[in-house]
Amino acid sequence: MLVPLPWLAEFTPLGGRDGQGVAAALVSVGLEEEAVLGSGLVGPLVSGLVVEAVPEPQKNGKVINWCQVDVGEALGGVRGIVCGAHNFAAGDKVAVALPGAVLPGPFPITARKTYGHMSDGMICSLRELGLGEDHAGIIVLARLGLDPPVGADLIPLLHLDEQTVDVNVTPDRGYCFSIRGVARELSHATGEPFHDPALIATPPPSTDGFAIVVDDAAPIRGRIGCDRFVARIVRGCSAAGPSPDWMQRRLNQSGMRPISLAVDVTNYVMLELGQPLHAYDLGGVAEPIVVRRARVGEHLTTLDGVDRALAPEDLLITDSPAGRLPTSVPTVGEASYGTRVLGLAGVMGGASSEVSDATQDLLIEAAHFDPVSVARSARRHKLSSEAAKRFERGVDPELAPRAVQRVTDLLLEYGGGEADAAVSDIGQPLLPQAIPFDPAYPERLVGVPYGTERVRAILEDIGCTVVTPASPAGLGASGAAGTAPGRGAQAGGGLADVAGGVPGAGAVLGGGAVAGGGLADVAGRVPGAGAWIVVPPSWRPDLTRPVDLVEEVARIAHYDLIPSVLPAAPAGTGLTKSQRLRRSAARSLADFGLVEVLSYPFVGEDTFDALDYPPGDERREAVRLANPLDAAAPLLRTEILQTLLGTLRRNVSRGFPDAGVFEIGSVTAPRRGADGAVAIAAAPLPGTDRRPGVAEVEALNAAVPPQVRHIAGAMVGQREKAGVWGPGRAADWADAVESARVVGRGLHVSVAPRAAQRAPFHPGRCAELKVGELVVGYAGELDPQVVKTLGLPAGAVAFELDLDRMIELAPDLVPAQPVSPQPVAKEDLAFVVDRALPAQDLVDAIRRGAGPFSEDAWVFDTYEGGQIPPDKKSVAVALRLRAPDHTLSPAELAAARLGAVRAAAQACGAELRS
Which of 624, 603, 609 is nearest to 678 (CA)? Predict the structure, then answer.
């Protein structure tokens, strides 16, 4: 949110603070500043009198003016300046940037030779000074209502010295998407008084205004999509004319482009109050306006010129070219009204009813829309409009009539015309609920002795109504400060309840909750005789629980007053077994040359297809998020490789062809009932005023799907770089298997590979990884088709392990192995075995047969062809033997060798090669 300081100062004094000072004050109450912005202009920028302007045609067909401009004796008197514009004449006062000035860009100004003249400065246009988009003609000061003396500094006169603070508004502070909201927060930070621009008189709603109907037969989550709609007509207004300069300047400073009076005024009031508005060309809108859900097959061309296919959840603003509703009661949703789509409610209007050059009569609309409905439509259509950003974070439901009145006043003041006396105002918004609150709760939770009076003062300062046992009177059933009067007719299921069958100001149809708020029945829920009842203000829908109020007390009293207390570490504790072994696994892979990364655990169905999971594979059964960050990735991953391979591809595409990455993270599977079916449980929301009970904890655990921690890694490119030591070596399936074994060694668990087949791995280069008889993962080369689909280099390899299961199998204590001082004996044995035999089976048999002196064994060579039968292969195994207390004798070595050969023959049908 861009906040111009002069605009902010209209509602609360700045106390002499510049942009940095205002930003620091806002930070103290929790509003983070992104930047402090200025015009970027450095003087001298002065008023100059055009003494002479001589047109000079050029060879390229362009005509320039060779000007003599008087900038005052103190600045050198008359200067010669070349100018390409023609919208001025001798005798005009213009804006002149002299050598040494720096215009926004930055664009330094120097004296330079051009078109055969030495141009000693620059006569400036609005765009060159950052004041607008007009670049066709330069600034004539008289046309801006200015007549400064020659040589006067124009920077303050043109407001180029004004600063703007860019504020980062968090999702729970939607009211700060307005100058009104930021001014309120600055007032909290500085203690200066706050003037609320929304406190303006509004006419009462009437029944003879423009007809409005809210027809929401399928509300999302039971909340009507539009629970308030206000409209008023302004006639005879110069809607398409320009807005005043001061308004255009503020819109530019706030990051919005001025367009016309009608559009600029609605944008200005939105920025000022936080209430999005829309101005319709009254001649292009037919009564009644109907707010309804989209029908199948409907389209809308929005103001950005894009034709959009609408979804049934989209809330629309429509009108009725066929005329007003008949006196007979139609079926809700029938096509007799609301047939023409005017806009996507709360997101963007349509092109059919926008203000044109001929527009004089306007229908001004302000509404309150359900945040969830707006957020879903904005995300579905990828439309992050200024209106949507405000509605999806929560707009003050009491603002609509005040915003319409503010727009009306500005239009009449700057565009002329007359406003109809009738005001349409229908609906009853859901106001914040009263909250039982213990005044001692902030001190107990935060640890700062605020005191009861300080707590009450802060709550009232942020706009809450506080009712104590000593002063319960004075509030009605609504309990909300500043509640507006009645809002027009309201019906529960059709038009039958509307007088005469024809709505006057409007009607609300359909099935969601719209009423709310108030103190009714709260007293019986208040814990303790001394508790308060706190009613949040209408602009704070985020305040729903006592802990929310505690956060407000801590925030307004300043977070820096909360003491930093380091809790004492109890003796005898430390890292758990799981923590120790997870760190050990990560350290082992880092030592092996892989880099740890973190990927988002969200995937789509297309990910399962890309990894070639077969139909019915359990890894396709994923937990679906109710409100995903990305509609294309609504599922939680069931394997880490589903997201890790995307990270690997991103690194390769950014110039890392030889990459190895790994990740430790959770995978999620659906919770299943006793019958094996997926079971979904709703999670309760426990209070923060006490420790959850056993039943609450069990309910929470039952609602959380199983999440298992895995470890996975992937490699592409060269595993060993080429150099003077050799040609290098590409990563292959053996590196993936060895990575898994490295993890096992870090956990003191023996991981044994066995040949297997499993997507997404190459059918002939995949190994299942076992600890004992339990399969804990898979490793190998990725299938070439998977590699192609994912956009990875050929030969990519990967592995994934169930880390939680391996940690369960890991020993709690690892006894230190004594180092034998005895020499090792080496035996190299070569066997002919079946081609299909896993080499690990042969190694295991040799180690068993070698007896107690067997220390290690591994494959160091394989061979096929030549003297080996076609269905056989030669496998050479290195066997290492050692005794702990003596040097092995020749007889012991011979016995161990013979045992290894016999075991290989018996278990694997191996035949010793001579």
Answer: 624
> Would you tell me how many other CB atoms lie within 10 Å of the CB of residue 90?
12
Beta strand 112-114 with 117-119 is: antiparallel
Q: How far apart are CA 862 and CA 766, in angstroms?
A: 18
Are residues 256 and 436 in contact, defined by beta-carbon separation less than 8 angstroms? Answer: no
Residue of 408, 405, 365, 402 whose CA lies nearest to 387:
365
- Whether 427 contacts 488, CB under 8 Å: yes
- Tokens representing 541 are 């829908």
Cβ neighbors of 169 (< 8 A, separation 6 or more) are 1, 31, 176, 177, 393
Instruction: Quote the CA–CA distance of 403 and 510 in Å, as a whole number.
Output: 26
Residue 677: how many other CB atoms lie within 10 Å: 8
CA distance 34 to 36: 7
pTM of the full structure: 0.69
Q: What is the pLDDT of residues 280-325, one digit of tens each?
A: 988 888 888 999 998 888 888 888 888 889 999 999 999 888 765 5
Q: Is 743 helix (H, G, I), strand (E, B) or coil?
A: helix
Q: Which of 33, 26, 32, 397 is nearest to 183 (CA)?
A: 26
C-alpha 66/C-alpha 693 separation (Å) is 86
- Cis preceding-peptide flag for 44 (omega within 30 of 0): yes
Q: What angle do CA 911, 912, 914 make, to 5 degrees?
A: 135
Asked which of 168-182, 434-448, 562-576, 599-613 is least confident by mean pLDDT, the reply is 562-576
Strand, coil or helix: 321: coil
| 824-829-834-838 Cα dihedral, nearest 10 degrees | 20
